[in-house]
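Structure first, sequence second, as always.
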């Protein structure tokens, strides 16, 4: 069972490592506010990650019985990703204003941003599908908990590292934290292109 915890931890850690709204916001909160605010934010994110990882397991089990539906979702996903790319491009200079909206409740802000993270469930579903394809688990209750707990700790740990080394990251990245939406615009456009190529090649 430990390997399920390990996979959950590693893939979640790697999945949240790349620049995203969540870890860049965590970085800014640590730089601009107190350690308590930062901790509350990461706890809010972690709570939602638990629910997202748990839901992903049952979602992929259902979708595995309906392959045609999965293909439809992938095609629809191309359109969604393109819209997101345009949205993030237009919102490039507004992230600081968004952060100030929830200054009084970092935990709730973490919950909201994590819920709005549209890539979490597809990401965890992909990991679950990979494990199931190799018959590494049938995801009974015990296996599910091992994987989900590993995923939550992995996400929490990478956010903790962003906060722990916030000032060093700021020095190394310069204006990166001020341009996160532009980065996300390129990331989502890249995912859209990659998904499109799967159908035409």
């Amino acid at each position: 069972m430990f390997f399920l915890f390990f996979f959950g931890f590693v893939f979640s850690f790697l999945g949240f490592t790349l620049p995203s709204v969540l870890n860049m916001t965590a970085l800014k909160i640590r730089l601009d506010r107190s350690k308590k605010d930062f901790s509350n934010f990461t706890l809010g994110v972690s709570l939602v990650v638990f629910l997202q990882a748990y839901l992903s397991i049952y979602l992929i089990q259902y979708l595995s019985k309906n392959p045609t539906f999965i293909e439809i979702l992938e095609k629809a996903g191309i359109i969604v990703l393109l819209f997101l790319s345009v949205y993030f491009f237009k919102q490039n200079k507004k992230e600081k204003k968004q952060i100030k909206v929830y200054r009084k409740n970092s935990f709730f802000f973490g919950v909201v941003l994590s819920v709005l993270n549209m890539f979490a469930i597809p990401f965890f579903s992909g990991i679950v599908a990979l494990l199931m394809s190799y018959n590494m688990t049938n995801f009974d209750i015990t296996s599910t908990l091992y994987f989900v707990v590993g995923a939550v700790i992995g996400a929490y740990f990478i956010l903790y590292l962003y906060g722990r080394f916030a000032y060093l990251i700021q020095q190394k990245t310069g204006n990166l934290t001020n341009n996160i939406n532009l980065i996300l615009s390129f990331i989502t456009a890249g995912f859209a292109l990659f998904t499109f190529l799967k159908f035409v090649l």
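Margin note: Confidence is low (pLDDT under 50) at residues 96-102.
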